[in-house]
Amino acid sequence: MKLPLLLFGSLLFVATQSCNEKALSQTETTSAEVHYEANWDSLANYEETAEWFKDAKFGIYAHWGVLSVPAYANDWYPRNMYIVGSDEYNHHVATYGKPSEFGYHDFVPIFKAEKFDAEAWAELFQQSGAKFAGIVAQHHDGWSNWDSKNNPWNSVDMGPKRDIVGELEKAIHSRGMKFVTSFHKARNLQIFQNDSSKWLDDTSYFPYNPEMPTSSEDSLVSIMYGNISKEKFYQNWLTELNEVINQYSPDLIYFDSKLSKLPDSIKAQFVADYFNYATKKGKQVVITHKEGELPKSVSLEDFEKGRMNKKTEEFWLTDETVSIGSWSYTNDLGLKTANEIIDVLADIVSKNGALMLNVSPMANGVIPENQQAILGEIGDWLKVNGEAIYGTRTWEVFGEGPTKQEKSGMFLAQLSYTEKDIRYTKKGNVVYAIILGWPGEHEEVQLSALSSEKMASLSQKVEGISILGSEEAIEFKSTQSGLSVMMPSQKVDDKAIVLKIKLGDKIF
Questions:
Q1: Closest Cα partner for 301 from 310, 286, 318, 289?
Q2: Is residue 109 packed enough to be buried (19+ CB in 10 Å), middle (13-18) or exposed (0-12)?
Q3: Nearest-angstrom CA–CA distance, 302 and 346
Q4: In what order do the strands lie in the sheet with 476-478?
Q5: CB–CB of 180/134 below 8 Å?
Q6: Residue 274 backbone dihedrals phi, psi, to 5 degrees
Q7: Do the Cβ atoms of 145 and 180 come closer than 8 Å?
Q8: Averaged pLDDT, 56-64
Q9: How far apart are CA 448 and CA 92, in angstroms?
Q10: Pairing state of beta strands 476-478 and 483-486?
């Protein structure tokens, strides 16, 4: 199949730089134009971890679109409503009628986004402390939240009749934040039409069923449900990504799973198109993947609702949601606390990762007040303690304490951290000890990672300690078992508190 290619202007040479040239070419101010070929060897010359991303640490995005209209169960409602006997199917029949008669595509005219305010979203995200922010551009349902000329199921031609991605991009970039788009479409492709034993296999998002619209061969309906040829689907996938790249200049593109359904040639062409676009624009961009579905030489690994259990050399991302049970809005949506999310952020950053937190707007475009309140609490904490997060790097150890994360990976059980759990970051000659809870007034805290023996091995000494958000002088003493720090007489915060530990120059 002949693939569509983007024209990037006159490009000077093939990317065969040395490691030093590779690093130089990725600075935001570079004027060199490097052409990357659509093969992994050439693409590996691009620096996959942007400096802005390593500094940013915290971002926000939103699961929002047609899937928000039913507001029932979870973000897999569009699929499960077609599984006869499921809770979603029964709800759908009782509320809208049989899905064979009122299908998922019939929700499109109901998605009007009448109260969507991109400026208000961007302001909320910025006040929450996010350094990058965006939206699900395209979920498993194949709906495009942008002005697509390729996909007829888009927010300009149907539903809201608004360019959602475009409005957000302007609002977010104008505030100096980086812009994120996420893509979940790979799962949309149906691949089991000829095997009835696998019609319910969730490798394909919509279950194939001759009695349902999911099997429609109508030239329009079939596109939404992924019931088209693989070759056409591959071409659409690539073309739609390039639309978003060229129209909205995203700084980070996140991919959900099932990229394994796509041929390497198509994936490599996308990466080449994105890297060449970024190089021409003189910007650093980031791609994330799950479960090894893109090479680590061109992308960073993402852990959905999970993370690493140790400090790593490679930088990575965790995507987590403010909600419990669903990524998109539902009428009975449970929520995590700001305290829980801050603890997870500190744990992630201490191990060399970043957190992208999802919010769940209602179909009308309003982010519910209870979600806004959580983001506000996170923002208030970061206003005081952000220097222990932004622009930091990992220290000698990531942390200490009784609460153990037994394994790395996705979909991990939620841990409850305490004031005995400590996470470390560093910046210059400062080490930050983030204590994941208030130890108590006049309580003594022992930092075993900063024992006199450990500091001697690093040829450094502790020169002073302060607590962010407190003006009280802090007493401390160094012992062989650890650095002993006395808490102030007044509570600093119910959430995590940060000890700012200034180290002296190395002693030789």
A1: 289
A2: exposed
A3: 17
A4: 444-447, 483-486, 476-478
A5: yes
A6: -70, -45
A7: no
A8: 98
A9: 56
A10: antiparallel
Q: Supply 322's token pair.
A: 């403010």
Residue 129 dihedral angles phi and psi, to the nearest 5° = 95, 5
Residue 249 CA to residue 169 CA, distance in Å, equals 8
Position 89: which residue type? Y
- What's the rounded Cα separation, in Å, for the pair 378 and 408? 25
SS3 501: strand
The 3 state secondary structure assigned to 83-104 is: CCCCHHHHHHHHHCCCCCCCCH
Six token digits for residue 478:
């160094």
Residue 507 clears pLDDT 70, i.e. is over it: no
pLDDT at 22 over 70: no
For every residue of 36-51, DSSP letters joined together read: PPSSHHHHTTS-SS-H
CA-to-CA separations, 479 to 113, 408, 456, 484, 485, in angstroms, rounded: 60, 33, 11, 7, 11
Q: How far is CA 23 from CA 18, 40, 49, 222, 295, in A?
A: 9, 18, 10, 45, 19
| Cβ-contact 496, 435 below 8 angstroms | yes
- pTM metric for this prediction: 0.92
Strands 483-486 and 444-447: antiparallel
- Residue in the structure block whose two tokens are 């303690």: 385
Give me the count of residues in the chain.
Answer: 508
**362-407, pLDDT tens digit by residue?**
999 999 999 999 999 999 999 999 999 999 999 999 999 999 999 9
Q: Is 410 helix (H, G, I), strand (E, B) or coil?
A: coil
Q: Give one DSSP letter per residue of 269-291, joined into a string.
A: HHHHHHHHHHHHHT---EEEEST
Helix H or strand E encompassing 239: helix 230-248
Where is 24: in which H helix or E strand? helix 19-25
* Packed helices 369-385 and 338-350: angle between N→C axes, nearest 10 degrees: 50
Structure tokens at 326: 């669903």
- How is 145-188 classified by DSSP, letter by letter? SS--SS-SSBTTTSTT-S-HHHHHHHHHHTTT-EEEEEE-GGGG
CA angle, 58 as apex, 57 and 62 as ends, to 5°?
Answer: 145
